[in-house]
Structures are given as structure tokens and as C-alpha cells.
Amino acid sequence: MADDTSDTRGTNGTSGSARAPGRRRLPARRRRLARIAAWSVAGIVLVGGTGAGYLYFKLNGNIHGVDINQALKDDDRPAQVDNGSEDILVLGSDSRAGANDKYGTDEGSARSDTAMIVHLYEGHKTASVVSIPRDTLITRPECSKTGGGTSPEAHKVMFNESYELGGPACAVKTVESLTGIRMDHYIEVDFTGFKGLIDALGGVPVTTTKAIHDKSSHLDLAAGAHTLNGEQSLGLVRTRHGVADGSDLGRIQLQQAFMKALMDRMNGLGVLSNPTQLVKVADRATKAITTDSELASLSGLKGLASSLSSLKSENINMVTLPVQYAKSDANRVEPLDAQAALVWQALKADQQIPAAALKGSAAAETDAKGVVGSGS
């Protein structure tokens, strides 16, 4: 994946197979998980026998779905754009309940610890990923609350409050309000599921150029080559005090670097040739995610993964929403409206994100990009 300042363009060539009117092509990003789930179908074939049916229903039953379209059916959503592109909201759940409580306590039930908008360009061979800092001050639209009732529109609230207030539907509605882009799909990954997936893969090789020590995220790494297990990987994507300036912007850069390493790990494993590992990985992957209802099946994930078979890590441009530190609170950021508009306009048009959109952003001043790279 490219760094925050790279300038990957979309390809406006052939859009692949035809699809029903009003529907856009399948999305990407945590496509890593989606591809693994699709591999589970191949694993069922490899295992064979009556156990195949059991595995199919077991894996299919692992997937949790949320009907976003039904939840937002009466809302004024952005129109779907039929230009061959696809947009997906990917959230890392910051739930503090159950097996996740070891990472600390927090007011409220859950927050979106990581948020990425994945734009898959026409042809599905290139993509852009825009990370939204969780501490970004935004205008949250009116949302239905998880426990019932409605919360009115609120100004200057943190981005990750939306998920805590109204779950996936409110998170999607907030992102659509912020960007003017309709989200075609939704994928959420929680702490425990993420750890289990990494462990099932046998860890992810990375190289650190500096030591990283962060008691808050339980991470203690010397400079050098490592194969991170699930616990260490989770610590890495959550650390914010161990590198650079200790901000959420630096943590986002670490997350982006780790995702590149994870993609490289997946591409180099050859899981399909090992049915036992394939089923284990597929089981962990399907348990790790919550998706919108259209993706909440092995067949839905298989279609997504199949459309992404040509997407390589070097063809994914990862950037951070252009922001500045908020005048009202130095611990928060707020969008640079003019630059952010350039980002959203480019994605709507299925075009590259212009370099001018990223200039002047506080994210460009945080240098954590070179701290972590893929292992050899």
C-alpha cells in the first residue's frame, strides 16, 4: 500500500461482468477477510464428503449481518453511482465487552476504533483507502439510537461517537453525510476476531526501524524483524504513544503499514494448498466480521473476493482524510474542508486523489510511515 502522499489513480477501463441496473460492483479493502471467506468455499470442495455440507453451514453461520439499507431506507442517502466503482466502509470495533475488556475501559458500549473508506476503481485492479481519524470533529446527522429513540443532529462531535450511539447504521449515515458518497457495503472487525485471524495465519512478518514500547497497547518491540502474533498485531494497530508524536494520525500510519504487511502475508501463504489451514483461517475470518446483509453469506463474500482477484497491494493508495488540529481542542482534529472536498469529488468521479488534496494536512506532519514495513 502506498503511503499518505502517494497518488494512485483509478482506471476507467472495462468494468468486468455486467450487473443488474442500479447495482454497483462488489467492493474491497478488508477484502483480505472477504477473500479468506471465499477461500473457505474452495476449502469445502477440497475437504469433500458429507463434512463439506457441515463446514458450509458452520462457516455461513459464523457471519453476522446488519441490514443497513433497511435501517436507512427512509433517510435521504446519496444516490448510487453506476460507473463501475465501489465504496465500502470498514470499521475496527472498539468494543470493551467480553473478551475485549483487557484493553481497558471506556464510557459507552463500543466505538469505531478504526475507520476506512475503501474505493475500488472500475475494473477492480486499483483502489484508494481513506482513513478517518476517530478523533475528527464532525457534524453527526440525526440517528436512530441502538437502545431505541432518536438522537438529533449534533455539531462538533467526535466521529467515532456515531457507532457508539447508533451502531453500523449510524456510522454509515455519518460517513455518507460527511462524504456525499453512498456506501455500497459495510465490514466490521472486532478485537478478538482480529487476533484470532492473525494467529490462524501463523503471524504477520514485519520489520520495525525503531523500538516501539507502549504499555497502553501492551506492545514491546525492539527494532528489527518480527513475526507478530495476534496479540502483538493488535497492539501495533492500536498503539499511539509508542511512535512519532503519539497522535491518532501516527497510529493511522502504522495501521496502513500493517495492512500492507498483512496483504503480503496472505498473498504469499498459499493457503489453498493446505485444506486444514484453509478451514481454520476461514473459520476465524468469518467469526471476525460483521457485514451488511448483502455480504453476510459465503456466496456474498465469494463474489466480493472473486471481483478482487487482480487487486495487488502495490496498487492500493492509502491516505488520511486531510485535517488540521482543532482550534477548540488540540487533542482533536477537524477536516480541511476544501482539501477534503477534493478527495470526495475524486472518488465520486472514480478518479485519482490529487496530490493537492493532501497538502497542508496535519497527517503529513506525522512521520510514522517508515517505522513499520513488511517482513522479508
CATH architecture of the domain at 31-201 and 291-361: 2-Layer Sandwich
By CATH, the topology of the domain at 31-201 and 291-361 is Nucleotidyltransferase, domain 5
Kindly provide the name of the CATH class of the domain at 31-201 and 291-361. Answer: Alpha Beta
Q: What's the count of strands? A: 18
Order of helices and strands: HHEHEEEEEEEHEHEEEEHHHEHEEEHE
Short overview:
It is built from ten helices and 18 strands. The chain has 376 residues and is α+β, with helices and mostly antiparallel strands.
Describe what this molecule looks like in 3D.
With 376 residues, this protein is α+β, with helices and mostly antiparallel strands. 34% of the residues lie in helices and 21% in strands. It has ten helices and 18 strands. The protein has a seven-stranded mixed beta sheet, sandwiched between helices. It has a three-stranded antiparallel beta sheet with strand order 13-10-18. Strands 5-8 form a two-stranded antiparallel ribbon. The chain is globular. It starts with 30 loop residues before the first helix and ends with a strand.
Question: Features of this protein?
Answer:
10 helices, 21% strand, 34% helix, three-stranded antiparallel β-sheet, alpha+beta, 376 residues, seven-stranded mixed β-sheet, Nucleotidyltransferase, domain 5, globular
